[in-house]
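Fold this complex.
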Amino acid sequence: MSPLPLQAQLLAVLRKDLLVEWRGRSRAIGVVIYALILLLLLSFAIGPDTRALQAHAAGYIWLTVLTASTLLLAQSFTNEVEGGALEALLLLPTSPVALYYGKALANFGVLFGLSIATVAFGVVLCDLSLDGSPWTLLLVLALGCGGLAAPGTLYAGLTVRTGAQQLMLPLLMFPLVVPSLLAAVKATALCFEPDVMGQLGSWLGVLAAFNAVYWALCGVLFIKVVDE
Amino acid sequence: MSTLAVEASDLGRRFGRRWSLARVELAVPQGHRLLIVGANGSGKTTLVRTVATLWAPSRGTLRIFGLDPVKQRFQARQQLALLSHQPGLYEDLSGTENLALTLRMQGRRDLDAIPGLLDAVQLDARPDPVRTYSAGMRKRLAFARLLAQRPRLALIDEPYGQLDPAGFELVDGLLDRLHADGVTTLVASHLVGRAAQRADEALLLEEGQVRWQGPAGDVTRAWKALHGTDS
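Structure:
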């Protein structure tokens, strides 16, 4: 039998992952609630000073998304190793490259949904008003989530069999995503305040560049992760 | 293309300092049925998983239909299917969805084959997720997935595990079906007498090494001679 083309395998993995996420949506809903509670606690720590909240809102939103992302990313691979499903999938055979990009895209989709919910809650909580196009904000969120999903999927795959994934995943992932996280925070902040210096474009460029590096490099490195 | 389905020479697999498999010589012709027996920890699963390309050999050579399982891993995997201790199923998906994934990953569009596959293992097309299945039902579904893969080489680790007596009969029938289809089978089992009835040759492992190799009909006698007890 001739092997299925890479992109068709990728789409089959993506479809499977989205279906698994949908079937286990109570887990994802739980993570969203966790994120919203975390954002609420961060706002409590600042107190009732609306101006201080608005000044730091973008940072809180992305820290919340980052923290909650480790739970979602870890779960995406827990589903795989439960009952040896990943092993069976690889033996079908499935290309590790298709597996990585299928899973990373599914993780991106879930993280993007989480970031939208977090920003919506942040807007209400911190009394934020959008200064510019909502499409620009969605682009910032998409690039920010892409910068988490690509390395996060790699490290979730790397740590799933360590027996200490909840600890190892953030330990490995957080230092790597600092540059894109910083760019996402800056770009998000500029969506809610006047961009008098015209910096938004530069931060979007930085985000896009880190996305390109992460998505290209992590796909190659993932082959080693599932090699044995 | 090699006439041998599996060919191994001085095959060994090490975990840390411990050799789980050592100096194994194998030459399994296509369509042949090899039974692998041995006590717990004797290396049966290690051998099966090494041939399945999940673990690279630590020494020696291994060929699957003439293919190198390390350098030509993807091509080798196209030839084989593994039924292991774990069912290898997605717990949140239904049986039908798990089989559909298997077919899709092989580029097959004949999803209407799924009811036939479920029939073959005597399972209903239930909409509920695999998480709700019993261990025996998962085993049956894993067998259906193996059939869906249409392998040339079937590697089956403990085919009778978790099954009831009716399930034993079902597995016997499935092994016969694979043989009739010309599939080479490597079966590792503790039910030596039963599995030997559906094998051409047997291999007795102890501490990772082959202690006896011969006609499957003689394996119970060889087991008794080696262990001093019935298998």
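The CA atoms of residues 5 and 20 of chain A lie 23 Å apart.
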